[in-house]
Amino acid sequence: MNGKRLLLPALVMLLAACASAPANQAPLVWSEENGSAGGDTGPAAPPEDAPEKTGPVEKVTVEHAVIEELMKILNREQILTADLIEIDASLVPFQIAIVSVADPAYVEKMDLSSKARKTTGFRLRTRMQQPALERDFPHVRLGDGISVMAAHEIRVKLYMKVTYERPMFLRIRGTGDAVYRDVKSGSRISRDQITIYAEVVRRGDGSHKVNQRIL
Prior knowledge:
This protein is mainly beta.
């Protein structure tokens, strides 16, 4: 099944229904220490006990062509393997693009959702001390192209809070014997840590563009 035909109409509906946030709201991103992402994902989230601010609410409208470009990234065949893989992404549009294909007989799944942090997600962990077969490994697919597999664990977190400047983002970080391969081009990267990063950001004129990089 063509991933763009399946995902694109759903993305348009999700954006119309869900992609709104207060203009003064900072992004929610995650790290092990405090539940918010640091490093290459952007600024940290405001403290959970910060006073609630009020202001006009606007919907973030992302151009159709930009969404198509983002879908091309998801549908390009890419493979990332590592000991540990962490996926951090905006809820829209990646909630409908991320699918766990791990066998529950060999991989344990745990819910990582947090109402306080406004996140949803899950963790996949192998039940085997020394996984030997592909069925033993945590395995997640994103769209029709990106496939990630970990020797020990995959953590997925989706964030409900975004900013107008970056309404959509995706970070996939593999740590420990990480190997990335682009199947079409044949390019291959091997090192201790590899990050696949894609985001939709707003230009100065209000339009949007897609940034992507491999770190």
